[in-house]
C-alpha cells in the first residue's frame, strides 16, 4: 500500500438493523433519566474525574489504552486536567444522547461515532458495562437513594444496556467495514 493510498468503505449502510436504543424505555423512565442526569450535567468535571479515577483503580489494565493518560504518574492521575478533560468529554457525549432521547435515529448516529472510534481501540462490551456500572454507583452515592431509588436504578440500567447494545451492533458493521475496505 502506498503512503498516499485512499480507502473507501463499501459496506452498505442499511445492512445492519440497529435496536431502537430508547424503545425499551417507558416515557416515565425517559423523564427519570433526563431529570437525574441534570445533576450530573451541572457537575460534569467532578463526575468525569471520579468516573475515570474509579475505572482505572478498579481496572488498571484499561489505562494501557489511553496514550495520553498512561504517562501520568498513577498518584497524580485523579484531579489531573487531562483526566478531567477526558471524563468530561464522555459525560458530554452521554448528555448528547440523553438530549436526543426522543429521536432514535440521532441517538444511533451519535453512538455510531463512539462505536467506530472505540472499535479501533478494542473496547469490549464488558469494558463499557464496567464504566456504566461505575456511573450508576456514583450517582447513587451522590444523589442518595431517594432520587436514585429502585425505579431510577432500573431505568438507568435499561438505558445503559440499550446504549451498549447499539454500540455492539455498530461493531458488527465496523468488522464488515474493515473486511471490505478497498483501495481506489
Ligand atoms: C459510555 C461509554 C463511553 C463513551 C460515551 C466514550 C466516549 C469517548 C469520547 C467522546 C472520546 C473522545 C473522542 C474519541 O477519540 O473518540 C473517547 C476517547 C477514548 N475512549 Fe471512550 N467512551 C466510553 C467508554 C470507554 C471505555 C469503557 C474505554 C476503555 C476502557 C474507552 C477508551 C477510550 C480511549 C482509549 C480513548 C482515547 C483517549 C485519548 O485521547 O488518549 N472509552 N471516548
TrEMBL record:
Keywords: Heme, Iron, Metal-binding, Oxygen transport, Transport. GO terms for molecular function: heme binding; metal ion binding; oxygen binding; oxygen carrier activity. InterPro entries: Globin (IPR000971), Globin-like_sf (IPR009050), Globin/Proto (IPR012292), Mb-like_M (IPR044399). Residues 24-172 form the Globin domain. PANTHER family: GLOBIN-LIKE PROTEIN. Belongs to the globin family. This is Globin-like protein. It comes from Dinothrombium tinctorium.
Amino acid at each position: 500500500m502506498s503512503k498516499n493510498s485512499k480507502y473507501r468503505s463499501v459496506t452498505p449502510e442499511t445492512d445492519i438493523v440497529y435496536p431502537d436504543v430508547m424503545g425499551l424505555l417507558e416515557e416515565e423512565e425517559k423523564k427519570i433519566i433526563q431529570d437525574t442526569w441534570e445533576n450530573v450535567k451541572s457537575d460534569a468535571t467532578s463526575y468525569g474525574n471520579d468516573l475515570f479515577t474509579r475505572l482505572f483503580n478498579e481496572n488498571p489494565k484499561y489505562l494501557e489504552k489511553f496514550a495520553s493518560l498512561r504517562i501520568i504518574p498513577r498518584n497524580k492521575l485523579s484531579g489531573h486536567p487531562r483526566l478531567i478533560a477526558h471524563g468530561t468529554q464522555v459525560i458530554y457525549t452521554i448528555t448528547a444522547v440523553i438530549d436526543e432521547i426522543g429521536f432514535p435515529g440521532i441517538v444511533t448516529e451519535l453512538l455510531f461515532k463512539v462505536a467506530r472510534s472505540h472499535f479501533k481501540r478494542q473496547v469490549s462490551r464488558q469494558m463499557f458495562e464496567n464504566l456504566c456500572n461505575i456511573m450508576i454507583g456514583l450517582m447513587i452515592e451522590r444523589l442518595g437513594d431517594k432520587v436514585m431509588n429502585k425505579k431510577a436504578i432500573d431505568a438507568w440500567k435499561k438505558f445503559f444496556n440499550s446504549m451498549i447494545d447499539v454500540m455492539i451492533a455498530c461493531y458488527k458493521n465496523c468488522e464488515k467495514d474493515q473486511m471490505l475496505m478497498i483501495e481506489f
